[in-house]
Amino acid sequence: MIDKQARQTINRLKALTPARIGVGRSGTRPLTQALIKFWADHAEAKDAVKSKLSEQFVEKFCRQYEALSISSLAQNREEFVLFPPRGKRLNTETLDMLKRTIQNDNGTDVQIVVSDGLSAMAVEQNVPDLYPVLLDGFAALGLTLARPVIVQYGRVAVADQIGHIAGAKVAINLIGERPGLSCATGLSAYITYGPNPATTISSDRTVVSNIHPRGTPAVEAGAFIVKVVDRILKNKVSGVRLQALG
């Protein structure tokens, strides 16, 4: 048996983290409640990986922000999961369309890309609150924005290809992260200075992660991303080189 003081300590720790601590056991087996919670969280994580952006979300976002909706080289969700490189690139027809639509010979400051990634659920939950904060913040800084793009079956690197076409100094990919057993709706923002198709090293990107109600709320994350982008533009570096500046 656990005494009262030990139980209070465990409860305080459990309140600080979604990790599975202090769940108890019966012999060598987990308690029924803990096992059912594990099964439920595992099912939610699987649903997140299989989730797709709804037509309603895509249509509303495109209408509200004059965004373009495209797909990566992956033809479906299964192909996207099994062949990751296909989610990082666009086909020739899509590239030609983007060159006609978003290419800016005079350049632009920021290209925002919204990708379903490994959790479309995360995008639909967080982007509606986060995106307006970005627009207001960048407007306050006097930054120019390229036309936003939604990528279905998209991975992180696809934003570098799109940002390069737009002639953007910075590319931001708002993408659904790989779900875990504690959160299936976490969004991240991958930010790259000088995006181009050759940007394949993760250390070149600055990441703002764990954007969700139990992590960093979307509105707060949006304000922080604006500050990060401002710093990146002033220093003309991102990723570990930005961190090295202190």
Helix content: 40-55%
- Unreliable spans are none
Question: What's the end-to-end separation, in Å?
Answer: 49 Å
The quaternary state of the protein chains shown equals single chain
User: What is the CA-atom radius of gyration, in angstroms?
Assistant: 20 Å
User: Main sheet: which strands, in order across?
Assistant: 3-5-4-6-7-8
Number of strands: 8
Q: Strand-residue fraction?
A: 15-25%
Count of helical segments? 9
User: What is the 3D shape?
Assistant: globular
What is the helix/strand order? HEEHHEHHEHEHEEEHH
What's the mean pLDDT score? 91
Structural class: alpha/beta
Q: Mind summarizing the main beta sheet?
A: 6 strands, mixed
Q: How would you explain this protein's 3D organization?
A:
The radius of gyration is 20 Å and the shape is globular. α6 crosses α8. By secondary structure, the chain is of the alpha/beta class. It starts with a helix and ends with a helix. It has nine helices and eight strands. The chain is 46% helix and 17% strand.
Please write out the topology.
Blueprint: H1 4-16, E1 25-26, E2 29-30, H2 32-50, H3 55-65, E3 68-71, H4 77-82, H5 92-101, E4 108-115, H6 120-141, E5 149-152, H7 158-166, E6 168-176, E7 187-193, E8 205-211, H8 218-235, H9 240-243
Parallel strand pairs: 3-5, 4-5, 4-6
Antiparallel strand pairs: 1-2, 6-7, 7-8
Helix pairs in contact: 6-8
Primary descriptors:
246 residues, 8 strands, alpha/beta, 6-stranded mixed β-sheet, globular
Report a brief summary of the structure.
By secondary structure, this protein is α/β, with parallel strands linked by helices. The protein has helices at residues 4-16, 32-50, 55-65, 77-82, 92-101, 120-141, 158-166, 218-235, 240-243; strands at 25-26, 29-30, 68-71, 108-115, 149-152, 168-176, 187-193, 205-211.
